[in-house]
Amino acid sequence: MRIAVTGTRGQIVSSLRERAAEKAEIVALGRPLLDLTNRASVRAALLDARCDAIVNAAAYTAVDKAEQEEELAMRVNGEGAGHVAEAAAELGVPLLHFSTDYVFDGSAARPYREDDPTAPLGAYGRSKLEGERRVAALCPNAAILRTAWVYSPFGANFVRTMLRLGETREEVGVVADQLGNPTSALDIADATLLLAARLVRDRAPELRGMFHMTGAGEACWADVAEAIFARATERGRRAVRVRRIATADYPTPARRPANSRLDNAKLSQIYRVALPEWRSSLGNCVDRLLAGSAH
What we know:
By secondary structure, the protein is of the alpha/beta class. The protein has one domain (2-291): Rossmann fold (3-Layer(aba) Sandwich), CATH 3.40.50.720. The protein has 9 helices and 12 strands. It has helices spanning 11-20, 39-49, 70-91, 123-138, 158-166, 185-201, 221-234, 265-271, 278-291, and strands at 2-6, 25-29, 53-56, 95-100, 142-147, 150-151, 171-175, 179-180, 183-184, 209-212, 219-220, 241-245. A 6-stranded parallel β-sheet has the order 2-1-3-4-5-10, with helices on both faces. Strands 6-9 form a two-stranded parallel ribbon. Helix 3 links the parallel strand 3 and strand 4. The chain is globular. The mean pLDDT is 96.
């Protein structure tokens, strides 16, 4: 199976490259060859890739910066997703498109299901929601995968930030009033490869549509930080305290959903796929970063 993936340096494409092994050949496509804002380049790059499936993992992900660059975010995450969907439809291959918990406002008292009303709080969420709409409209042969709180041994993410801060600080203030599902990009990659293979061989309509894909279990950011520092201490790092703070104590240009929890029951029921519990995957990631084995 040959999978074309948009993006060359992100956490998901890096994880797919590592996990593919004998399961698939990953063709990573990024600028200047593939520019999501340029419809012609997207079409040409994907048609030339001669793939069996497409994964749209590239995106504008600067959540706070998007408040000042909403037009650019919309061009990449909204229009760009549409360009990829058009190419997938023309090729007749399945598309796996990644979206986000930020399409919700976080006001629900339970984990969000796929059919819950969307109400993004900021520009990033609005741009990703527009991407979902365009993919759904332009490529019926698509699985839209909402994920959240992604980390990995690759690129910039919360785990790497905490480990870096822990090198010079005895205490770190971390938000404790936002709930979500910490999710390993390596686990996402494993699940994505399974889903892609199923979509290629099975035309069943229930395999298409919207799915939530996050790590099992839930936590607040302070819980995640405490787990990171506890694991690091077990591996010889000095102890670091976590000071639990409110979102209001750490203002950011973009508002974050207080509840980012996603319900993964549909993914489990339709595909029989469930991502591992977050603490196990987080521990493995911390071990790798401390061992210096990440790229």
